[in-house]
């Protein structure tokens, strides 16, 4: 190491996953000590083993407090541009019953703790990530946001996880373009302060954020947004003229209003709603829908009403109140393949979840697809299927191929509980009946990653 060029040594030290190792390197040699001062990123996370040692009577006197380690690192080098601190995800499994005291040694969004070190980096820091310890932070309201906004003049990216955040005293942050709040209780029930103080956000991630009543996103430069709402707000409003990619997951809002003329990729996971308003959303090309069975027709009619006919890629699944049981038909919903083609006449790629496939196959049995108009645009189909009666499943597959004349690439994932002989019969029959189709076969099961057993045969 002593003979390596200084820039290379700095690059090696920068790649350390834990900056506590950086402090150890300083004691090894003069070269490493000098090079450590050139490192511009700091990463420090409390592992489960460190946490347990700090709690054990036999070892806790040997462990330097986590907060002390961080403050020493910052005060030693005041030019960090990126800081990432937090507790490992493994500590998320610790419950209140496992903690007997009211300590705050890992409460990382504590105002006084941040005040001890963040002002030293006020002019250099560009990226800040804080993953708090939920057991200690969830019942302590923090004004960390106001301190960060009044201290970090050039901050571009901010990530905060597992905290209770106040917004009083929040200052304007014109340089901030990327904000992530994950599993956070936020005292901004309508998102007014976020819209006002972070006006130049281009990427916003609100994952499992609670405390909302009638939240509204109104950001003119927002391009990418992922929003997973942990409670059931009265309404959600999104007005974002530059929004291109939007993932929304919510439960039973009375109203969803979306005004996004540039939206191209829309992923909507929804458990019922009274009203869905799509304004200026006619440019959606990739659409992913996971909706409750009872609201399926209503949701899809909204997309048809607002002329989303340019959709070329569609992923569709139904959230079922009861699961499909092998050999038993339950909780059917009438929605045929012909209706889908009518709503989205220009799709080239279609992926169907098990609920969607089951509903469409059930509708096919009633004859709803017999007189349907063919589709010439569909080229690729992926489906998660449960074979209840093989003759109906085969007939449904063949009817799709007869109607969709350009369909040449089909991927079928068969549920793992289906009898292997039945699955084998299905596969061989499809191959022999349509040898010109590129068939791909696999296995699916709830909660497990799909497994492909053949590719392009």
From TrEMBL:
Name of the featured protein: F-box domain-containing protein
One Pfam family cited in the UniProt record for this chain: F-box-like
Domain of life: Eukaryota
F-box domain mapped to chain residues: 2-38
InterPro entries noted in UniProt: AUF1-like, F-box-like_dom_sf, F-box_dom, LRR_dom_sf
């Amino acid at each position: 190491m002593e003979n390596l060029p200084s820039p290379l040594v700095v690059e090696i030290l920068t790649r350390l996953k834990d900056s506590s190792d950086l402090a150890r390197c300083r004691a090894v040699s003069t070269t490493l000590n000098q090079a450590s001062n050139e490192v511009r990123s700091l990463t420090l996370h409390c592992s489960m083993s460190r946490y347990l040692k700090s709690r054990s009577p036999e070892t806790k006197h040997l462990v330097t407090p986590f907060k002390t380690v961080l403050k020493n690192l910052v005060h030693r080098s005041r030019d960090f541009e990126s800081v990432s601190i937090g507790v490992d995800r493994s500590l998320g499994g610790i419950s209140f019953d496992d903690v007997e005291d009211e300590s705050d040694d890992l409460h990382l969004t504590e105002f006084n703790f941040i005040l001890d070190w963040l002002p030293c980096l006020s002019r250099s820091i560009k990226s800040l990530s804080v993953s708090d310890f939920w057991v200690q932070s969830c019942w302590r309201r923090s004004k960390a946001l106001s301190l960060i906004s009044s201290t970090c003049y050039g901050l571009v990216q901010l990530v905060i996880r597992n905290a209770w955040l106040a917004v009083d005293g929040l200052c304007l942050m014109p340089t901030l373009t990327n904000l992530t709040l994950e599993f956070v209780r936020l005292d901004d029930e309508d998102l007014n302060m976020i819209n006002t103080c972070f006006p130049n956000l281009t990427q916003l991630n609100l994952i499992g954020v609670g405390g909302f009543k009638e939240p509204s996103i109104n950001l003119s430069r927002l391009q990418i947004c992922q929003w997973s709402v942990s409670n059931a707000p009265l309404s959600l409003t999104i007005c974002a003229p530059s929004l291109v990619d939007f993932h929304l997951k919510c439960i039973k809002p009375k109203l969803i209003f979306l005004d996004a003329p540039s939206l191209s990729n829309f992923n909507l996971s929804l458990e019922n709603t009274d009203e869905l308003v799509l304004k200026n959303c006619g440019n959606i090309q990739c659409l992913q829908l996971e909706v409750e069975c009872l609201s399926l027709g209503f949701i899809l009619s909204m997309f048809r009403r607002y002329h989303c006919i340019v959709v070329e890629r569609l992923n569709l699944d139904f959230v079922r109140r009861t699961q499909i049981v092998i050999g038993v038909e339950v909780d059917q919903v009438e929605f045929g393949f012909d209706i889908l083609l009518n709503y989205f006449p220009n799709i080239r790629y279609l992926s169907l979840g098990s609920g969607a496939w089951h509903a469409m196959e059930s509708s096919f049995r009633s004859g709803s697809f017999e007189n349907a108009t063919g589709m010439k645009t569909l080229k690729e189909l992926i489906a998660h299927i449960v074979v209840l009666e093989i003759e109906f499943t085969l007939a449904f597959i063949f009817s799709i191929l007869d109607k969709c004349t350009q369909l040449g690439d089909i991927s079928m994932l068969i549920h793992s509980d289906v009898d292997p002989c039945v699955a084998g019969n299905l596969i061989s029959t499809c191959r022999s009946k349509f040898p010109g189709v590129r068939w791909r076969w696999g296995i699916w099961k709830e909660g497990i990653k799909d497994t492909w057993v053949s590719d392009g045969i």
